[in-house]
Amino acid sequence: MLKRSKADRTLKQNLMLASSTAMVSGMTNVVGLMAFLAFSSNITGHVANLSKHIVEQNFNQILLFLIWLFMFFAGAFLSNFIVKSLEDKSYYRAHSIPVIIEIVVLLFVAIYGNNFYRETQREREVVIAVLLFSMGLQNSLVSIISGGLIKSSHLTGLFTDLGGEVAEWIHPKTEKTEVVRNKIFIRLTVLSFYILGGIIGGYFFNLYEFAIFYCVPLILLTILYYDVSELALHKLTRRFVSDKN
Question: Which of 7, 67, 89, 189 has the smallest count of CB within 10 Å of its CB?
Answer without folding.
Answer: 7
